[in-house]
């Protein structure tokens, strides 16, 4: 199988896009998500919670609500990317995320959960570049911190 130079460039752009996704959520940089990560009509699905959110503003609002007084560390690894056309692509990423929360104000952050699984995504190329159109977070295993 021969991969074209354009496909290689698109794959690298998609890797950078996913890096911006992880950086944006971990830094709670919702402007980055709005302007450089998601398509305006993007959707986010988390089957383990039964949550499905449509539209970039709704995604940001839901995640912001979930992230009150929390810190996260996200990793997206081993991308399996398929360029379908000059404007569409699909991807699957192994994922690992950790969510931390304080037990009380002023206390250090403690592990709340450690999730492992993958993201299934579709991408669309807009005039401003590649953006996430759909993302589905599949957590295959979750370790919760012991209750204190």
UniProtKB/TrEMBL annotation:
<protein>
    <submittedName>
        <fullName>Bile-acid 7-alpha-dehydratase</fullName>
    </submittedName>
</protein>
<feature type="domain" description="SnoaL-like">
    <location>
        <begin position="9"/>
        <end position="134"/>
    </location>
</feature>
<dbReference type="InterPro" id="IPR037401">
    <property type="entry name" value="SnoaL-like"/>
</dbReference>
<dbReference type="Pfam" id="PF13577">
    <property type="entry name" value="SnoaL_4"/>
</dbReference>
<dbReference type="InterPro" id="IPR032710">
    <property type="entry name" value="NTF2-like_dom_sf"/>
</dbReference>
């Amino acid at each position: 199988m021969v991969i074209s130079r354009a496909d290689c460039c698109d794959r690298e752009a998609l890797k950078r896009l996913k890096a911006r996704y992880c950086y944006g959520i971990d830094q709670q940089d919702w402007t980055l998500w709005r302007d450089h990560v998601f398509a305006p009509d993007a959707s986010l699905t988390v089957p383990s919670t039964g949550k499905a959110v449509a539209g970039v503003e709704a995604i940001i609002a839901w995640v912001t609500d979930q992230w009150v007084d929390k810190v996260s560390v996200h990793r997206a690894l081993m991308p399996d990317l398929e360029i379908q056309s000059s404007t569409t692509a699909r991807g699957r990423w192994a994922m690992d995320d950790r969510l931390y929360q304080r037990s009380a104000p002023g206390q250090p952050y403690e592990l709340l959960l450690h999730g492992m699984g993958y993201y299934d995504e579709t991408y669309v190329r807009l005039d401003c570049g590649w953006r996430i159109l759909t993302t589905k977070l599949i957590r295959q295993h979750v370790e919760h911190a012991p209750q204190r």
